[in-house]
Amino acid sequence: MAETLEIRDLRVSVQDKEILKGVTLTIRQGEIHALMGPNGSGKSTLAYALTGHPGYTVLGGEVTYQGRNILDLPADERSKLGLFLAFQYPVTVPGVSVANFMRTAINARRKSGGNGQGKPISIPEFRKLLREKMKMLNVDEAFAGRYLNEGFSGGEKKRVEILQMAMLEPHMAILDETDSGLDIDALKAVSEGVNRLAGPDVGILLITHYQRLLDYIKPQFVHVLLSGRIVESGGPELALELEAKGYDFIRVRHGETPTGKD
Amino acid sequence: MRPKMATGVDRAAVEGMGEYKYGFSQPENYVFKSRKGLSREIVQEISWMKGEPEWMTKFRLKAYDHFIKRPMPTWGGDLSQLDFDEIYFYIKPSDKPTTSWEDVPDDIKRTFDRLGVPEAERKFLAGSGAQYESEVIYHHIQASLTKQGVIFLSSDDGLRQHPDIFKKYFATVVPPPDNKFAALNSAVWSGGSFLYVPEGVHVELPLQAYFRVNAQSMGQFERTLIILEKGAYAHYIEGCTAPIYSSDSFHSGVIEIVVKEGARFRYTTIQNWSTNMYNLVTQRSVVSRDGMMEWVDANLGSKLTMKYPSVYMMEPGARGEILSIAFAGKGQHQDAGGKVVHVAPHTRSKITSKSISKDGGRASYRGLLKVYKGAEGAQSHVQCDALLLDEHSRTDTYPYIEVDEDKVTIGHEATVSKIGDEQLFYLMSRGLNEVDARTMVVSGFIEPFVKELPMEYAVEMNRLIQLQMEGSVG
After folding, report:
1. What are phi and psi of A164, to 5 degrees?
2. Measured between CB atoms, which of A75, A112, A168 is closest to B428?
3. Has residue A102 been placed in a domain?
4. Does any domain span residue B22?
């Protein structure tokens, strides 16, 4: 089944406020898309709505993945189909170690038959896998025993999000402002990791406010989200234009008032 | 006429009886009938049956007199259903009815299945088997302990075989008038463990009330006495995560611990009594100079538990730590916590309490932090965290803080939380279904406690929490 994510005219509200007013976007296997937009445009709302956050209400439209409507599925079912979200603000789960969490997530997939026999992963096999991925992403092995996101710096949290992505091997990954709060070294490390995970089988949606990330993870398609709609789509050059001219330029182009702020 | 002997332990007890001559002697041809309710006569008979020295018989009777006079406590849980006239206060081991395996509730059987409890253990835990004999292991452990001079016996045997040590310490930590149930236990106690560790001896192996001793120690009115001489170390574990099914509805134990200078002792309890049980226990330790006492206390079962492990720091440098968790499910009330009493200066204590309430259960933290005048430099920190898993459940905190000294460092923190929607979504977004996600948050919540358990217990504990969360445990 083709790993295509098709979003058609999606309208989403949160706390009774309509944020997404008809988003249409298709992401195929092997494609890297960037979604840019000013704060408040609805970027994170899209990420949460796609992955099934219960606080977000779908008012209309359709989302299909692998040919199935996923809007009826709870978050865990969507995850097991191959969808992954790298959170912008990963939450802390006290007392649960990174390793323990990862092993449980892998076993959850195995139980539902996604990966084969349904047998849980053996401890030695898991340790080997974890060590391999931590090395690849330049994440200190000490993180395996630390409690999930507890006391992690912003950069560390983002790196552990990508580590989770590496362990779960999703086919459709949404990265929500993965670059925010990262210094140049961390950004490089994270980008390298994502690039290694990308490939002909994987679709990636990069949500970002700034163009900088796109120097390291090169998208084929760039879209601009403004006031809950995708107003422009193009290639990487669109991102460069945005960087040079700012979001106000886009606003004016689409009949909106410039804010003078970005 | 010698009574019929049913078990190996019984035989030893009866044989022991014949060797001693005490003030009271058993009337000829006397046959003890187990019967309900309590009276002075029954207390006397209990002492006769055991062939106890006169001082113990007198002690029991005096305790009984106090028990009768003392009113029921008006705080804590609801004890109104407790009917003393319906309780058997002493049953000869040979008379103790065994439950037929068929009568054991299905949910208990299912729990054994899920926890992977071996066949022989299941029958024992359900009270439907003869004693679980782990002969070889038991004797091997005993041999190595004896080499070190460690005494580890049932309390009945302890009194019989080491009367001087026993008498020296018995009831010095928990005197009968301490509370109504301590008085009751003092009158009718039977079974429990007696542990004596000589000066400087370190017992590396965690001591478990092995089944042979445990058969008696799992009795309703167990009395445990533990003495650690100067510089000694030991770790004692009792209980298990598998539910103990008992037709007894009332368990009232007393645990007394003496930790002498520079000694260190840890007492771990994992209690999962079936949910018809009233579990009222007095646990107390006194600690001397530079000694350390640790209580690790898990309260998972019972209908009502009232239990406050205590540490009395009597001399400078004494330390105490209490780590307690309580899980209150449907129809359960856990009233637990701890008491730390700083009598001497430069003493340190810490109480960490974690409680979880689900399906209308009620978990209460009740604790005392007391610092006497003159206990300069005392340091204490109390942390109680409660997790409410739904809107029907309840949690309460009753912290009592009595500090009569200025130059001290005291801290108290209490938190109440529920499983956050953001946490749930985060975990579910990685493929965990809702039950597994909630279970994971709960496991994380009790992790500071589980970390302190020996491996096999930690594994069992996690599995048990999983079952509780799935709602398949009765």
Report:
1. -60, -40
2. A75
3. no
4. yes
Q: From the candidates B419, B423, B426, which should be mutated to test the interface with A, based on the most A CB atoms within 10 A?
A: B426
Confidence of residue B99 (pLDDT cuts 50, 70, 90): low
* Lowest mean pLDDT, pick from A113-122, B235-244, B260-269, B422-431: A113-122
Task: Say what the pTM is.
Answer: 0.82
Q: What's the domain count of chain B?
A: 3
Residues of A with CB under 8 A from a CB of B: 51-55, 74-76, 78-80, 84-85, 87, 90-91, 93-96, 101, 104-105, 108-109, 112, 147-148, 164, 168
Closest CB from B421, B428, B448 relative to A76? B428
- State residue B443 phi and psi, 5-degree precision: -60, -40
Name the residue range of residue A182's domain: 5-91+153-253
Q: Determine, yes or no, domain membership for B439.
A: yes
A75 chain-B contacts, CB cut-off 8 A: 425, 428-429
- Which of A35-39, A125-129, A257-261 is the most confident on average? A125-129
Both B47 and B145 in one domain: the answer is no
- Residue B453 is part of which domain span? 421-474
Q: What is the DSSP string of B228-285?
A: E-TT-EEEEEEE-SS-B--S--EEEEEEEEEE-TT-EEEEEEEE-B-TT-EEEEEEEE
Residues of A within 8 A of B429 (CB-CB) are 51-52, 75-76, 78-79, 84-85, 87
Burial class (CB in 10 A: 0-12, 13-18, 19+), B11: exposed
**One domain for residues B176 and B296:** yes
Instruction: Write the pLDDT tens digit of every residue in B8-48.
Output: 333 334 333 333 223 233 343 445 666 778 899 989 988 98
- Establish if A201 belongs to a structural domain: yes
Distance from CA of B297 to the nearest CA of A (A): 18
Residue after which a domain boundary falls, among B32, B61, B86: B86
* Domains held by chain A: number: 1
Question: What pLDDT, on a 0 to 100 scale, did the predictor assign at position B116?
Answer: 65
ipTM above 0.85, yes or no: yes
Check if the beta carbon of residue B70 is closer than 8 Å to that of residue B180: yes
| Together in a domain, B225 and B80 | no
Non-local (6+) Cβ contacts of B423 within 8 A are A91, A93, B437, B441
CATH number of the domain bearing residue A51: 3.40.50.300
State whether B26 and B151 are in the same domain: no
Closest CB to A79 among B421, B422, B429: B429
- Whether B149 maps to a domain, the answer reads yes
Q: Taking residues A96-109, report their average pLDDT.
A: 94
Would residue B341 count as lying in a domain? Answer: yes
